Amino acid sequence: MAFHSLERFGRVLQALRGLELSVSAIQVFLVLAKTDRHISALSDLARRVEVSKTLVTHIANRMEALGLGARTEPQGDRRFCSFRLSPKGVELARSMEAYLAGEADTF
Protein backbone atom coordinates (compact mmCIF):
# COMPACT_ATOMS: atom_id res chain seq x y z
CA MET A 1 0.00 0.00 0.00
CA ALA A 2 1.45 3.35 -1.00
CA PHE A 3 2.00 6.11 1.55
CA HIS A 4 -0.70 8.34 0.03
CA SER A 5 -3.19 5.50 0.37
CA LEU A 6 -2.28 5.06 4.05
CA GLU A 7 -2.64 8.79 4.57
CA ARG A 8 -6.09 8.74 2.94
CA PHE A 9 -7.07 5.73 5.05
CA GLY A 10 -6.04 7.63 8.18
CA ARG A 11 -8.24 10.59 7.22
CA VAL A 12 -11.22 8.30 6.59
CA LEU A 13 -10.73 6.55 9.95
CA GLN A 14 -10.53 9.90 11.74
CA ALA A 15 -13.74 11.04 10.06
CA LEU A 16 -15.58 7.85 10.99
CA ARG A 17 -14.27 7.62 14.56
CA GLY A 18 -17.12 8.10 16.99
CA LEU A 19 -19.84 8.26 14.34
CA GLU A 20 -20.78 4.60 14.82
CA LEU A 21 -22.10 4.27 11.27
CA SER A 22 -23.48 0.95 10.06
CA VAL A 23 -22.49 -0.67 6.80
CA SER A 24 -25.90 0.31 5.41
CA ALA A 25 -25.32 3.95 6.39
CA ILE A 26 -21.98 3.90 4.60
CA GLN A 27 -23.71 2.47 1.52
CA VAL A 28 -26.28 5.29 1.68
CA PHE A 29 -23.38 7.77 1.83
CA LEU A 30 -21.80 6.30 -1.26
CA VAL A 31 -25.09 6.25 -3.20
CA LEU A 32 -25.76 9.90 -2.30
CA ALA A 33 -22.21 10.87 -3.21
CA LYS A 34 -22.74 9.54 -6.73
CA THR A 35 -26.11 11.19 -7.36
CA ASP A 36 -26.58 14.58 -8.97
CA ARG A 37 -26.60 17.29 -6.31
CA HIS A 38 -26.13 14.60 -3.60
CA ILE A 39 -29.89 14.17 -3.14
CA SER A 40 -32.26 11.21 -3.47
CA ALA A 41 -35.74 10.16 -2.37
CA LEU A 42 -35.64 7.97 0.73
CA SER A 43 -37.60 5.26 -1.11
CA ASP A 44 -35.01 5.27 -3.93
CA LEU A 45 -32.19 4.98 -1.39
CA ALA A 46 -33.89 1.96 0.19
CA ARG A 47 -34.25 0.31 -3.22
CA ARG A 48 -30.68 1.03 -4.31
CA VAL A 49 -29.08 -0.12 -1.05
CA GLU A 50 -31.54 -3.05 -0.85
CA VAL A 51 -32.78 -2.32 2.66
CA SER A 52 -36.19 -1.43 4.10
CA LYS A 53 -37.61 2.09 3.95
CA THR A 54 -37.76 1.99 7.75
CA LEU A 55 -34.01 1.36 7.97
CA VAL A 56 -33.29 4.23 5.56
CA THR A 57 -35.46 6.47 7.74
CA HIS A 58 -33.35 5.51 10.78
CA ILE A 59 -30.15 6.11 8.79
CA ALA A 60 -31.46 9.55 7.75
CA ASN A 61 -32.26 10.35 11.40
CA ARG A 62 -28.73 9.37 12.45
CA MET A 63 -27.12 11.31 9.60
CA GLU A 64 -29.20 14.40 10.44
CA ALA A 65 -28.21 14.17 14.11
CA LEU A 66 -24.54 14.05 13.05
CA GLY A 67 -24.92 17.04 10.72
CA LEU A 68 -24.16 14.93 7.65
CA GLY A 69 -27.38 15.68 5.78
CA ALA A 70 -30.99 16.85 5.94
CA ARG A 71 -34.42 15.87 4.71
CA THR A 72 -36.22 17.91 2.10
CA GLU A 73 -39.99 17.75 1.87
CA PRO A 74 -41.95 19.22 -1.03
CA GLN A 75 -44.48 21.53 0.63
CA GLY A 76 -44.06 19.69 3.94
CA ASP A 77 -45.32 16.35 2.60
CA ARG A 78 -43.26 13.66 4.39
CA ARG A 79 -44.58 10.95 2.03
CA PHE A 80 -42.26 12.27 -0.69
CA CYS A 81 -39.26 12.98 1.48
CA SER A 82 -35.77 13.23 -0.01
CA PHE A 83 -32.41 13.37 1.70
CA ARG A 84 -29.49 15.62 0.79
CA LEU A 85 -25.94 15.41 2.07
CA SER A 86 -24.69 18.50 3.85
CA PRO A 87 -21.28 19.93 2.91
CA LYS A 88 -19.84 17.93 5.83
CA GLY A 89 -21.55 14.77 4.51
CA VAL A 90 -20.30 15.38 0.97
CA GLU A 91 -16.74 15.81 2.25
CA LEU A 92 -16.91 12.57 4.25
CA ALA A 93 -18.47 10.61 1.37
CA ARG A 94 -15.82 11.86 -1.05
CA SER A 95 -13.06 10.86 1.36
CA MET A 96 -14.55 7.38 1.62
CA GLU A 97 -14.86 7.09 -2.16
CA ALA A 98 -11.29 8.25 -2.70
CA TYR A 99 -9.98 5.69 -0.25
CA LEU A 100 -12.04 2.87 -1.76
CA ALA A 101 -10.97 3.84 -5.29
CA GLY A 102 -7.34 3.83 -4.20
CA GLU A 103 -7.72 0.40 -2.63
CA ALA A 104 -9.25 -1.00 -5.82
CA ASP A 105 -6.17 0.16 -7.74
CA THR A 106 -3.88 -1.91 -5.52
CA PHE A 107 -5.52 -5.23 -6.46
Automatic annotation (TrEMBL):
<dbReference type="GO" id="GO:0003700">
    <property type="term" value="F:DNA-binding transcription factor activity"/>
</dbReference>
<dbReference type="InterPro" id="IPR036390">
    <property type="entry name" value="WH_DNA-bd_sf"/>
</dbReference>
<feature type="domain" description="HTH marR-type">
    <location>
        <begin position="1"/>
        <end position="107"/>
    </location>
</feature>
<dbReference type="InterPro" id="IPR036388">
    <property type="entry name" value="WH-like_DNA-bd_sf"/>
</dbReference>
<dbReference type="GO" id="GO:0003677">
    <property type="term" value="F:DNA binding"/>
</dbReference>
<dbReference type="InterPro" id="IPR000835">
    <property type="entry name" value="HTH_MarR-typ"/>
</dbReference>
<keyword id="KW-0238">DNA-binding</keyword>
<protein>
    <submittedName>
        <fullName>DNA-binding MarR family transcriptional regulator</fullName>
    </submittedName>
</protein>
